[in-house]
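Q: I have 137 residues here and want to know how they pack in 3D. Can you give me a structure?
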Amino acid sequence: MNVYDLPTLNACLNVLSATLLIRGYLLIHRGEREAHRKTMLAALLCSGLFLCSYLVYHFFVGSVPYPHHDWTRPIYFAVLIPHVILAALVAPFIILIVLRALKGDFVGHRRLARWVWPVWIYVSISGVVVYLMLYQL
């Protein structure tokens, strides 16, 4: 594996994160707290590994411009711009909801998770869309 393989790894980590986030959501709604906790910590780990891999890739490769100058270009930026903004905004809130859960503040955790979870899932899925458009079109 070399640095140019990292975007594919990143997309896989995002797919795994999204899958775990959905599983965690379903588990907590079924009342399976311990399975939810483990699943959400796994989602956090996948997202953390993604962030590390993403930073390493862009440290060595730099910015990658969108190569197509056709009808897909505005769609790409319509997905990319909110993805980047929301990814930057949601990261500290993810840490906050995890800390609340670990401290046993489930009321605060639940209240914040209702807002953070949809953004986290959007960022994970839109990251895959960005990857597909940038590297697979």
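Q: Anything worth noting?
A: The radius of gyration is 16 Å. The chain has one domain: 3-136.
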